[in-house]
Design brief:
Number of helices: 4
Low-confidence stretches: 120-127
Strand order of the largest sheet: 1-2-3-4-6-5
Number of strands: 6
CATH architecture: Alpha-Beta Complex
CATH class: Alpha Beta
CATH topology: Aspartate Aminotransferase, domain 1
Radius of gyration: 14 Å
Largest sheet: 6 strands, antiparallel
Distance between the termini: 24 Å
């Protein structure tokens, strides 16, 4: 996936906002002010960082050479995915969905309802 495809996919999720919180070389995607993805736009570090449950984070790092810990968040359950690694776009979309769902599941019931999400794992996207 290229940067624009990732950006378009992330913002297609219900309640997602995007911004440049650090500088103009990183684009952050949030749902209800909770970050679920960071897209590094710099030439030397082009990649995507995503939240991940602990078991899956380790499994993905062992299975794919293009997946590494994203320690720049000081959180061990974020994975960094190199956009030059050749990882299939279907897998990247699944990982974006996973990160989004983890983030949504941590929101309060009221926030989820206000966003039109029916349950914690829902993307809120109609059928």
């Amino acid at each position: 996936m290229n940067i624009e495809e990732i950006r378009t996919y992330c913002i297609s999720k219900r309640g997602v906002s995007e911004g440049f919180p650090f500088n103009d070389t990183a684009l952050v995607f949030k749902v209800a002010d909770k970050m679920f993805a960071l897209l590094d736009l710099s030439e030397e570090n082009r990649g995507l960082s995503l939240k991940c449950d602990p078991e899956l984070a380790l499994e993905l790092r062992e299975q794919f050479t293009g997946v590494t810990p994203a320690y720049h968040f000081n959180k061990k359950h974020w994975n960094g995915i190199s956009l030059d690694s050749g990882i299939d776009s279907k897998l990247i979309k699944e990982w974006i969905d996973h990160s989004y769902q983890i983030t949504v599941s941590k929101l309060t019931k009221k926030v989820r309802e206000d966003m039109g999400l029916t349950h914690p794992g829902s993307s809120g996207d109609p059928g």
